[in-house]
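Lab notebook page, bench 4
Experiment: in silico fold of construct C2
Operator: M.H.
Input chain length: 127 residues
Purpose: comparison with the prior construct
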Amino acid sequence: MFIKVLHDETMKEIDTTLNLKNIIKKLKKYCSNDTDIELITSIDDLYFYSHKSGENINIHKIPGYTDIFYDELFIIKHDNHTTIDIDVSEYSIIYSESIDYYVCEELSNESDIINSDNGLDIDTSNY
């Protein structure tokens, strides 16, 4: 089982077995367009496949990924040898934890920038 995320963030569970050797070919059967599908990123044992071009920008936010992708997003869980079933509820938990991590990471980086000695002088003039 894997997850298909439509461009409007609607999620569907696809109950089928995937072979990692021909995963792109199998995923194309579930695509709405003919453009190439490819691995766009991964987080731990989750692999995200989508289109780099298409008709509709997919608005789903992948934690830590900022590039634009189109139409369907496929979320596959595997351990480099075999696929592992994943459903929407499991992905939701992983997603929430990942978003929390990346938000904290971004806030920490912003704090570092604000608190760093950036070489700028403070204007103490009286006007």
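Observations: The longest strand covers residues 70-78. Residues 2-115 form one domain.
Next step: discuss at group meeting.
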